C-alpha cells in the first residue's frame, strides 16, 4: 500500500486524541488526504506536508486540518508520544516535535522557499532566529507553536478554513504602521485549500520574559481573597495599574488598525437583529437562559433604537486576558484570529471597537469569580449565600473594569462607558455566548456568565427607571 493509502486509516484513530482536534466528542467517519507535498525526500527523516479532509458521522460539514508528517526507521524516544503508526515501512509521527524538521521549516521561511503550492514567505527586514533548536510549546489548545530560543516563534494553524487567516492579515496591517503593541511578524507559511489561498502558519518575534494577563489577574485575585481586612487598592498584588495600562494598549491597537485598514458603519437595527437571533438559538440550547431573555432583549432593542450608524473597523474579535502578554516593556495583544468556531467571513467583518472592550470587561469578571468559586463554592450552590469573599471578588472586578476603561479613554480620547447602551449590549451578547460554551464544555463555570447577565440586566432596568 502507498503512504496515501496507509496514513488515512491510522489518522482516523490518531486525530481524535490530539488536543487541537476540534471534534473530539464526535465519531470520525473518514480521513482523506486532500493534498500531499513532499518536503524532505532523502535521508532521515522523510517529511511530507499534508492537508486532511475529515468527515464526521453526524453529517456536519467536513473539517480541514494540516499535519507535517515525518518518518524514520527508529524514531528517538522523545518522539514516541507523537507516533502515528507504521506507514511506508517507516514509523510516522508528528514532525513538529522533531528539531530536524523545525530547523528545515525555519530555514525555508528565512530563504523564501517554495515547494509546490506551499510558500514560505519572510517579511522584509525581519530578523529570524539562527542556530537555535526548535521547541514545541505546550500552552495552546487549537494550534501548535514552536519557539527558537528567545527570538522567533512559529504558530502552525491546525484546523484550516480557506482564505487569509485574520491573525496574519492584521499582523501584516499592524506591521505596516510600525505597531509596538503586537509581537512583530517575521514571516508566514501559505498554501492552497480547495483552490483558495489558505494561511498555514505565521512566524513572529518571541515575547521573552513575558506573563499572560489571565495568570497575572488570577494571582491578584488570590492575593485579595487571602487578605482578611484589606481592600483591593491596599493589597500588594493590586492589578488596577496594569489593567489601566492594558486599556491604553488596546486603544492604541484600535487606532493603529484604523490607520492601516478601512473603517465603515453598521446599522444598529441589523446589529440588534443578529443579537436577537443568537439569543433565540442560545435559549433553545440552554433553558437556563429563558428567564433572562426578556430583559436581554430589552437591552438589544435599545441598541436597535439608536438614531445614528455605529462606527466599525477591524478589531481583535475575541479579546480577553488570555490574549495578552505583559513583557518588561509593556503589554502586547496576541492571537487576532477572532472566535475560532465562527466562519471566516464573520471573523473578518468590521465591528465596533466596543466588542473588544466588552470582551475584556467580561474577562475581569471571569478572573474574579472563577477564583472565588475555588475558595467558596457555596456562592453558586446557595442562592441566599452572601460572604465577604464574594464582596471582595466583586470589588476586584469593578475596580479593574473601571481601571481598564480609564486607560482606554486616556488613549482613545473617549470613554467607552459613555456609550453605556451599546457597551452593555456587547457584554450581554458575549455573556450569552459564554453560557452556551460553558454548558457544553465546563458546566461548573456556567454560573459565572449567568450571574453577570443578572447584574447587567438589573443595571439596565435601573438606568431605565424600571
Oligomerization state of this entry? single chain
| Class from secondary-structure proportions | alpha+beta
CATH topology of the largest domain: Aminoglycoside 3'-phosphotransferase, Chain: A, domain 2
| Overall number of structural domains | 3
Number of helices: 13
Which percent range describes the beta-strand content? 15-25%
Name the CATH class of the largest domain: Alpha Beta
Largest sheet entry: 7 strands, antiparallel
Provide the low-confidence segments as ranges. none
Mass-distribution shape:
globular
Give a count of the beta strands, DSSP E runs of length 2 or more. Answer: 18
Mean pLDDT across all amino acids = 92
Ends distance: 72 Å
CATH superfamily of the largest domain: Aminoglycoside phosphotransferase (APH), C-terminal lobe
CATH architecture of the largest domain: Alpha-Beta Complex
Give the helix level as a range of percent. 40-55%
- Order of adjacent strands in the largest pleated sheet: 6-7-12-13-10-9-8
Radius of gyration in whole Å, from Cα?
24 Å
Explain what the structure shows.
This protein is an alpha+beta fold and 466 residues long. It folds into three domains: 92 residues; 106 residues, Phosphorylase Kinase, domain 1; 253 residues, Aminoglycoside phosphotransferase (APH), C-terminal lobe (Aminoglycoside 3'-phosphotransferase, Chain: A, domain 2, Alpha-Beta Complex), CATH 3.90.1200. The strands form four sheets. Strands 6-7-12-13-10-9-8 form a seven-stranded antiparallel β-sheet. Strands 1, 2, 3, 4, 5 and 11 form a six-stranded antiparallel β-sheet that branches. The model has no long low-confidence stretch (mean pLDDT 92).
